[in-house]
Specification:
- The chain is of the alpha+beta class.
- The chain has a single domain, classed as Fumarylacetoacetase-like, C-terminal domain (Fumarylacetoacetate hydrolase, domain 2), CATH 3.90.850.
- Helix content is 15%, strand content 33%.
- The chain contains 5 helices and 18 strands.
- A hairpin with a 3-residue loop joins strand 17 and strand 18.
- 38% of the residues are buried.
C-alpha cells in the first residue's frame, strides 16, 4: 500500500529506565472520586462510570510547554493516575485478568475546556470538544507495574507551587481493575492503550505562564507549563 502522503509518526511516552511506550488509544473515566462528583454537581451514589476518549496525538511528554487551548477562556487541569496497558482483551471476567494487562503507571493531566463541557452537559451532547483537543493529555514517564507499589500512594497536584489536589488513590469509586473490566465490555483493549483513571476534587482554571506539577507516590511525576 502506498500512502498519498507521509503518515504521522506514532505517539509515544517515555518509560522510566529506557524505551518508549507506543500509544494506541487514550481512554478516560470521569466521576471516579466522590468529592469531585460533588464538586461538579453530581451524586456519587447514583452516578454510573462515564467514559470518553482523547486522540493518541493529544499526548504530550514531560517538561513540555503547552499552548493555551484555542476556542476557550476556561482551561482546567485535572491530575490523574494513568494506566498503560501491555496486553489486550475484551469482556474480561475477573480483576486478575484485568490486572494482568497492566504494563505500568504514570502521572497524567486531563486538560479540559470547561466551558465546552458545560455546554455539552446542558445540551446532552458529546464531550469531544471539551476533552479531545490538541495537547490535552500531558503524561509523565511510565514506571513498570512490577517496580512500583501504589497501595498507599497519594495523588498531589500543584499550580505554581500551590497545592490544589491531595488525595489517596484508594478514594477512587472504581479501582483500576474494575475500570479495565468495564472498558473491556465496551471496547477490545489492546497493547498501547492508556487509561486515565479520573481526578479528585480541586480542579481549577489555568492561565498562560502557569506551571503544573502532578506527583503520585514517590515514583510518578509530571511537570509542564502553559505557554
Amino acid at each position: 500500500m502506498s500512502f498519498v502522503f507521509e503518515p504521522p509518526s506514532r505517539p509515544g511516552v517515555a518509560v522510566d529506565g529506557g524505551g518508549v511506550f507506543p500509544v494506541r488509544r487514550v481512554f478516560c473515566i470521569g466521576r471516579n472520586y466522590a468529592d469531585h462528583v460533588r464538586e461538579m454537581g453530581g451524586d456519587p451514589k447514583s452516578s454510573a462510570p462515564v467514559f470518553f476518549t482523547k486522540p493518541a496525538d493529544a499526548v504530550v511528554g514531560e517538561g513540555e510547554t503547552i499552548p493555551y487551548a484555542q476556542a476557550t477562556t476556561n482551561l482546567h487541569f485535572e491530575g490523574e493516575l494513568v494506566v498503560a496497558l501491555g496486553g489486550g482483551g475484551k469482556d474480561l471476567a475477573s480483576e486478575d485478568a484485568a490486572a494482568a494487562l497492566i504494563y505500568g503507571y504514570a502521572a497524567g493531566c486531563d486538560l479540559t475546556r470547561r466551558d465546552h463541557q458545560a455546554r455539552a452537559k446542558e445540551a446532552g451532547g458529546p464531550w469531544d470538544t471539551a476533552k479531545a483537543f490538541d495537547h490535552s493529555a500531558p503524561i509523565g514517564a511510565i514506571v513498570k507495574a512490577d517496580e512500583i507499589d501504589l497501595s498507599s500512594a497519594r495523588l498531589k497536584s500543584s499550580v505554581n507551587d500551590e497545592t490544589r489536589q491531595d488525595v489517596m488513590l484508594d478514594q477512587m469509586i472504581w479501582p483500576v481493575p474494575e475500570i479495565i473490566i468495564a472498558l473491556s465490555e465496551q471496547f477490545e483493549l489492546k497493547p498501547g492503550d492508556l487509561v486515565f483513571t479520573g481526578t479528585p476534587e480541586g480542579v481549577g482554571p489555568l492561565a498562560p505562564g502557569d506551571r503544573i506539577e502532578i506527583a503520585i507516590g514517590d515514583r510518578l511525576g509530571l511537570n509542564f507549563k502553559i505557554g
